[in-house]
Amino acid sequence: MDDPVWINKVEALVGPFVAYILEGQKEAEWIEWKIVNLGYEILRSREQNVDWPSALCWHKMVLPKAGAFLWTALHGHILTGERLKLIGIAGPSVCILCKENEETTDHLLFWCSYTKRVWDWLLDKLQYGSVRSQSLKSFLLAWPTCYKKSKWSILWVVSLAMLAWNIWKERNRRVFNEEALPFELLIPKIKVAIEEVINVKVVGRKYFTYSSWDKEMERLWNLTKNSGYKFVDKK
Ligand SMILES: [Zn+2]
Question: How far is the CA of 169 from the centre of ligand 1 (A)?
Protein backbone atom coordinates (compact mmCIF):
# COMPACT_ATOMS: atom_id res chain seq x y z
CA MET A 1 0.00 0.00 0.00
CA ASP A 2 3.02 2.30 0.16
CA ASP A 3 2.63 4.08 -3.12
CA PRO A 4 5.01 7.09 -3.26
CA VAL A 5 3.26 8.60 -6.28
CA TRP A 6 -0.03 8.86 -4.45
CA ILE A 7 1.54 9.87 -1.19
CA ASN A 8 3.31 12.71 -3.00
CA LYS A 9 0.08 13.80 -4.67
CA VAL A 10 -1.73 13.97 -1.34
CA GLU A 11 1.23 15.78 0.21
CA ALA A 12 1.30 18.31 -2.64
CA LEU A 13 -2.40 19.00 -2.19
CA VAL A 14 -2.40 19.30 1.56
CA GLY A 15 0.91 21.11 2.05
CA PRO A 16 -0.08 24.60 0.82
CA PHE A 17 -3.14 24.55 3.06
CA VAL A 18 -1.35 23.81 6.30
CA ALA A 19 -1.20 27.49 7.17
CA TYR A 20 -4.89 27.87 6.34
CA ILE A 21 -5.77 25.04 8.69
CA LEU A 22 -3.50 26.37 11.43
CA GLU A 23 -5.12 29.79 11.27
CA GLY A 24 -8.10 28.22 13.02
CA GLN A 25 -10.35 27.33 10.15
CA LYS A 26 -12.65 24.43 10.73
CA GLU A 27 -12.07 21.24 8.80
CA ALA A 28 -11.03 22.13 5.30
CA GLU A 29 -13.80 20.50 3.33
CA TRP A 30 -12.17 21.36 0.02
CA ILE A 31 -9.01 19.43 0.93
CA GLU A 32 -11.01 16.47 2.15
CA TRP A 33 -12.85 16.18 -1.13
CA LYS A 34 -9.68 16.54 -3.17
CA ILE A 35 -8.24 13.62 -1.23
CA VAL A 36 -11.43 11.63 -1.74
CA ASN A 37 -11.17 12.16 -5.48
CA LEU A 38 -7.56 10.99 -5.43
CA GLY A 39 -8.68 7.86 -3.62
CA TYR A 40 -11.24 7.04 -6.22
CA GLU A 41 -8.60 7.51 -8.89
CA ILE A 42 -6.52 4.86 -7.13
CA LEU A 43 -9.50 2.54 -7.07
CA ARG A 44 -10.28 3.13 -10.73
CA SER A 45 -6.68 2.75 -11.86
CA ARG A 46 -5.96 -0.37 -9.87
CA GLU A 47 -9.42 -1.93 -9.92
CA GLN A 48 -9.20 -5.09 -7.84
CA ASN A 49 -5.51 -4.77 -7.06
CA VAL A 50 -5.75 -2.35 -4.15
CA ASP A 51 -4.00 -3.82 -1.11
CA TRP A 52 -5.68 -4.37 2.21
CA PRO A 53 -6.33 -2.21 4.21
CA SER A 54 -6.44 0.38 1.41
CA ALA A 55 -9.25 -1.67 -0.09
CA LEU A 56 -11.19 -1.14 3.09
CA CYS A 57 -10.69 2.62 2.89
CA TRP A 58 -12.10 2.76 -0.66
CA HIS A 59 -14.84 0.20 -0.14
CA LYS A 60 -18.10 1.35 -1.72
CA MET A 61 -19.94 1.03 1.60
CA VAL A 62 -17.55 3.34 3.45
CA LEU A 63 -18.34 7.04 3.75
CA PRO A 64 -15.85 8.53 1.24
CA LYS A 65 -14.58 11.25 3.54
CA ALA A 66 -14.03 8.78 6.37
CA GLY A 67 -12.32 6.26 4.09
CA ALA A 68 -10.09 8.93 2.58
CA PHE A 69 -9.13 10.11 6.03
CA LEU A 70 -8.23 6.61 7.18
CA TRP A 71 -6.16 6.02 4.05
CA THR A 72 -4.29 9.28 4.61
CA ALA A 73 -3.74 8.38 8.27
CA LEU A 74 -2.40 4.93 7.42
CA HIS A 75 0.19 6.61 5.23
CA GLY A 76 1.17 8.88 8.13
CA HIS A 77 0.08 12.03 6.32
CA ILE A 78 -2.58 13.52 8.53
CA LEU A 79 -1.46 16.75 10.16
CA THR A 80 -0.75 15.58 13.67
CA GLY A 81 1.58 17.51 15.95
CA GLU A 82 4.36 15.08 15.08
CA ARG A 83 3.75 15.51 11.35
CA LEU A 84 3.73 19.31 11.59
CA LYS A 85 7.13 19.18 13.29
CA LEU A 86 8.46 16.96 10.52
CA ILE A 87 7.45 19.45 7.84
CA GLY A 88 8.97 22.30 9.79
CA ILE A 89 5.99 23.89 11.53
CA ALA A 90 6.53 24.34 15.24
CA GLY A 91 3.65 24.13 17.64
CA PRO A 92 2.30 22.10 20.49
CA SER A 93 2.50 18.41 19.69
CA VAL A 94 0.86 17.03 22.80
CA CYS A 95 -2.27 14.99 22.17
CA ILE A 96 -5.27 17.18 22.88
CA LEU A 97 -7.43 14.22 23.84
CA CYS A 98 -5.34 13.00 26.79
CA LYS A 99 -2.81 15.86 27.12
CA GLU A 100 -0.19 13.30 28.09
CA ASN A 101 1.55 11.92 25.01
CA GLU A 102 2.96 13.20 21.75
CA GLU A 103 0.32 13.36 19.05
CA THR A 104 1.38 10.74 16.54
CA THR A 105 -1.08 9.06 14.19
CA ASP A 106 -0.89 5.77 16.08
CA HIS A 107 -1.30 7.50 19.40
CA LEU A 108 -4.25 9.63 18.34
CA LEU A 109 -6.18 6.93 16.49
CA PHE A 110 -5.19 3.86 18.43
CA TRP A 111 -3.25 4.14 21.69
CA CYS A 112 -4.65 7.29 23.30
CA SER A 113 -6.55 6.53 26.52
CA TYR A 114 -9.56 8.44 25.11
CA THR A 115 -9.45 6.61 21.77
CA LYS A 116 -8.98 3.23 23.46
CA ARG A 117 -12.27 3.66 25.27
CA VAL A 118 -13.97 4.20 21.92
CA TRP A 119 -12.22 1.17 20.37
CA ASP A 120 -13.23 -0.94 23.38
CA TRP A 121 -16.82 0.09 22.82
CA LEU A 122 -16.71 -0.82 19.11
CA LEU A 123 -15.00 -4.19 19.66
CA ASP A 124 -17.58 -5.01 22.30
CA LYS A 125 -20.38 -3.99 19.94
CA LEU A 126 -18.95 -6.31 17.28
CA GLN A 127 -18.42 -9.07 19.83
CA TYR A 128 -14.80 -9.14 18.72
CA GLY A 129 -12.22 -10.22 21.29
CA SER A 130 -9.19 -8.74 19.54
CA VAL A 131 -5.78 -8.48 21.13
CA ARG A 132 -4.11 -5.08 20.83
CA SER A 133 -1.65 -4.78 17.96
CA GLN A 134 1.55 -2.79 17.79
CA SER A 135 0.07 -0.22 15.45
CA LEU A 136 -3.17 0.83 13.82
CA LYS A 137 -1.94 -0.60 10.53
CA SER A 138 -1.15 -4.04 11.94
CA PHE A 139 -4.47 -3.99 13.79
CA LEU A 140 -6.30 -3.34 10.52
CA LEU A 141 -4.26 -5.99 8.70
CA ALA A 142 -5.64 -8.50 11.19
CA TRP A 143 -9.20 -7.17 10.93
CA PRO A 144 -11.69 -9.96 10.10
CA THR A 145 -12.80 -10.00 6.49
CA CYS A 146 -14.54 -13.35 6.49
CA TYR A 147 -18.07 -12.13 7.15
CA LYS A 148 -19.70 -11.90 3.76
CA LYS A 149 -23.24 -11.50 2.51
CA SER A 150 -24.86 -10.86 5.86
CA LYS A 151 -26.20 -7.34 6.17
CA TRP A 152 -24.46 -7.10 9.49
CA SER A 153 -21.12 -7.90 7.89
CA ILE A 154 -21.10 -4.34 6.58
CA LEU A 155 -20.48 -3.24 10.15
CA TRP A 156 -16.95 -4.65 9.89
CA VAL A 157 -16.25 -2.54 6.83
CA VAL A 158 -17.99 0.71 7.73
CA SER A 159 -17.22 1.06 11.42
CA LEU A 160 -13.40 1.33 11.28
CA ALA A 161 -13.23 4.41 9.11
CA MET A 162 -16.16 6.00 10.95
CA LEU A 163 -14.45 5.54 14.28
CA ALA A 164 -11.15 7.00 13.05
CA TRP A 165 -12.91 9.87 11.28
CA ASN A 166 -14.91 10.80 14.38
CA ILE A 167 -11.82 10.72 16.60
CA TRP A 168 -10.17 13.11 14.14
CA LYS A 169 -13.24 15.39 14.17
CA GLU A 170 -13.21 15.39 17.97
CA ARG A 171 -9.52 16.28 17.91
CA ASN A 172 -10.26 19.18 15.54
CA ARG A 173 -13.26 20.27 17.60
CA ARG A 174 -10.91 20.68 20.54
CA VAL A 175 -8.11 22.33 18.56
CA PHE A 176 -10.20 24.80 16.54
CA ASN A 177 -13.42 25.27 18.49
CA GLU A 178 -12.11 24.73 22.00
CA GLU A 179 -15.02 22.43 22.70
CA ALA A 180 -14.66 18.91 24.03
CA LEU A 181 -16.95 15.91 24.05
CA PRO A 182 -16.24 13.24 26.66
CA PHE A 183 -16.01 9.77 25.11
CA GLU A 184 -19.37 8.84 26.67
CA LEU A 185 -21.01 11.44 24.43
CA LEU A 186 -18.89 10.78 21.36
CA ILE A 187 -19.71 7.05 21.29
CA PRO A 188 -23.47 7.44 20.66
CA LYS A 189 -22.67 9.91 17.86
CA ILE A 190 -20.37 7.37 16.22
CA LYS A 191 -22.97 4.63 16.60
CA VAL A 192 -25.66 6.74 14.93
CA ALA A 193 -23.24 7.78 12.15
CA ILE A 194 -22.37 4.13 11.42
CA GLU A 195 -26.02 3.13 11.41
CA GLU A 196 -26.98 6.00 9.11
CA VAL A 197 -24.29 5.13 6.56
CA ILE A 198 -25.32 1.47 6.53
CA ASN A 199 -29.04 2.16 6.39
CA VAL A 200 -28.56 4.42 3.38
CA LYS A 201 -26.25 2.03 1.55
CA VAL A 202 -28.21 -1.19 1.96
CA VAL A 203 -31.54 -0.02 0.53
CA GLY A 204 -32.81 -2.49 -2.04
CA ARG A 205 -30.15 -5.12 -1.35
CA LYS A 206 -30.82 -8.65 -0.28
CA TYR A 207 -29.16 -9.95 2.87
CA PHE A 208 -29.21 -13.18 4.75
CA THR A 209 -29.15 -13.96 8.41
CA TYR A 210 -26.61 -16.74 8.85
CA SER A 211 -25.71 -17.16 12.47
CA SER A 212 -26.35 -16.33 16.07
CA TRP A 213 -23.77 -13.55 15.60
CA ASP A 214 -26.08 -11.86 13.06
CA LYS A 215 -28.94 -12.08 15.52
CA GLU A 216 -26.82 -10.55 18.25
CA MET A 217 -25.95 -7.69 15.91
CA GLU A 218 -29.65 -7.13 15.29
CA ARG A 219 -30.04 -6.60 18.99
CA LEU A 220 -27.00 -4.34 19.42
CA TRP A 221 -27.34 -2.10 16.37
CA ASN A 222 -30.27 -0.11 15.11
CA LEU A 223 -30.20 -1.11 11.47
CA THR A 224 -33.62 -0.68 9.98
CA LYS A 225 -35.63 -3.50 8.51
CA ASN A 226 -38.07 -1.83 6.21
CA SER A 227 -39.74 -3.13 3.08
CA GLY A 228 -36.58 -2.43 1.09
CA TYR A 229 -34.78 -5.38 2.65
CA LYS A 230 -35.41 -9.03 2.25
CA PHE A 231 -34.19 -11.15 5.13
CA VAL A 232 -33.87 -14.88 4.78
CA ASP A 233 -33.04 -16.89 7.85
CA LYS A 234 -30.65 -19.68 6.80
CA LYS A 235 -31.13 -21.63 10.02
ZN1 LIG B 1 -3.81 11.05 23.73
Answer: 14
